[in-house]
Model the fold of this input.
Amino acid sequence: MQPQDVAQRHAAASTGAPHPAVDVEQAEAALVEHYPRLVRLAYLVLPSGLARGRRVLTAHSLVQRALPRGRRQVPVIPAQPDGRKTDPGYSLVRLEVVRTALEAGRPLRLTAWPTRAQLPPLLPQVWGLRLFPRSGGADELALDQRLAALSGAARAAYALRGLEQLPDGDVREILRAVGVEHPEGALAEANGVPAEYPLLDSPEFDPCSLQARPTDLMRRRRHTKAALAAAAALAVCGALVALPAGGWGADGAAAPVYAQNPAARAALDPAQLTKVPATVWKTAARTDFSVWPARGALTGDTALLRRALAVWARPGATVRVSATPGTQTGGPAGPPQLLYAGVVDSARVVILYDGLRIARYAEPKDGTRGAALDLARADGATGAAASALVLGRADDNVRYLTAPWVTGAAERDLMKPTAGAMDLGLTDGVTGPLASSALRPGACTSWNVLQLTDAQGVHLATDLGELVPARLTAGRPGESGEASGAQGLRDWAPFACSLVAEQSAGVRSVNAWAFAEQRLPDAGGTGSWVCTRAETWRGDGTVSLAQFRTPGSRYGAVAAKGADVTACGPRDPHVLAGVLWKSGGGRWYLLAAGGHDTASVRATGGVTASAQGTQLVAAAKQGAQAELTGTLEDGREISGLR
Done:
């Protein structure tokens, strides 16, 4: 049945009137009047796998492109609970918003052209700022996680039921009109999420009430300076090329590429590669990548090594090149060190090290088409930070190459602190496949990490989609230790899923610090506060997350976030954060907590209150915004993470 047929049947049954037509002006009036509701609807239907800023801009873009081109018949006019019930313009625009939001959530396919909704929005754009909705409470976060596990059609059904307050018959008609083949299945899937419809009107799902934060200011400044320097260099080169005979022309002082540079030529010569003997690490003064031996069955394959070096120096247009943030992609200055050359799953892999970077070259076993080059910073890595490298990925699994001093490798679920670890085995330093949580789609129900054993103890590391796994620690900053202990595992378990926010950010290590436990009002039990801080290889780009867990909850909720701040780190081992919390009796409270050396806490703005000690509990209203200030025992003031 076509959408027009559906519309005619539904309109005749509900109004008894001829099927109405809508012109652009009527649709525009409805769009402007109900713009916040339409954007909220689009935001709810879009998949939460999109970054929050991208999801906000996409929702606004879809609504702004929902106007028809000329007069159109209204496909569906379901009954409305308020003044929108007789507005065919609103019904038409809403239908277009639902249709394009479902299209935007579909994965791109190589066999078909993408629709406009599947591409990043051209407009609106906000340069220099990141925009995202205000964070809600634990209930809103839990609902968002449940909606993320639904299909796009089921999310649309849930939003039309809860936000638009439509009966299932009208929801079924709308889904069928936008191309959903099995609307009954979408409704049944939506039944699996509790009907917490009032939460859909909370600030958590309001893409029209936004917070703004700057993007990476230092990186933007560097890019601007680099662009100006490149423009100046281009102008100078153009002038020099144009000089008359005798000047610096094409045959002037610059020699042909690599021809007259011994170091550059040596960097491309497989015979010049540094290959460390297998026992050097036992007597070396340090434990880092420089003492790793060359391993793998293809360390003598000169042709493979030559291709790897050549691609690193000048990758062709068909080579997929990736680099962690802050990593230079140019070739090595001299002969690098060979760490591995061999066959991993269905690829030939070469791993090289130049003292600052790890380079991984991979090509198919049956040719070189589809070769890839991955680069990552590893400067200063030593001990546990230099214990493993990603060797290969296949079928959502990852294999690691471990340091020669590693004696055991196992897989552990970070969300099950009391469960045992599963041995992965080691063959010439190569582990068996480990199911990578960073690559797994869908809701976060487990988080698998790599557990390594050496003479110094047991260490944990997690795959975040990069060559060097991030080390996991636990404890007060400056005094933190390995997360593999019983207390560290308990601290990490409810907050493991927050690691997904650190993927592909050049993260070196992540520490979890359980800085407070807070008794909740109205006999709500005891909540726990944990601050997780991700340190990067480049120094900047650090992220601190203050997370709060209510009694009985499996997951913690992000209450506040700070980017490029010293809070919760070794330079400033202090933190202050707050969250709005709704008690079982339906009352809202502002909860705030700081570290053990916090002397007092004060709230201003939407909530005015103060308390001596490390914690604050104050009555509040839903959606209230408060500024937190803490005073340490030494008299210094700190501000709360936001």
Observations:
- Confidence is low (pLDDT under 50) at residues 1-19, 76-83, 240-255.
- The radius of gyration is 29 Å.
- The first helix runs from residue 3 to 14.
- The longest strand covers residues 507-519.
